[in-house]
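Following up on my earlier thread - several people asked me to post the actual chain instead of describing it. Fair enough. Here it is, all 129 residues.
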Amino acid sequence: MARNIFVEELIHTPIEQQGTEIVERKGIGHPDSIADGLAEAVSRALCKMYVARFGRILHHNTDQVEVVGGQSAPKFGGGIFLEPAYILLVGRATTVVNGERLPYRTAAIEAAHDYLTQTCTNLNVDGDV
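Reply from S.P.:
Thanks for posting it. Predicted structure:
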């Protein structure tokens, strides 16, 4: 089997020594920023629920959120949604403690709804998502 691995010297000024660095910044309304904000909001809500009930934060992971699809007809100063976006909250959470089933879904959905309402002020959260 032929090997196709090559090692070459990179002749480039290190970033630390450059006068200018160009980076991409995604704004508040960018789907990646919205997904990150939703994941944080859900985690905070679960933490509050766990601390209120058990005095400590229980195991959870909320680092995967997908903002999918949706379609709009934008125009200057506004526009309309033609199809709603779909948001998928993915992760794991402690759901039962000593036989008590926790309202983790309610906490997550309410946190996501509140985050979208506060962050995307021109979005009809109840109809466009």
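The chain is about 30% helix and 25% strand. That should answer part of your original question.
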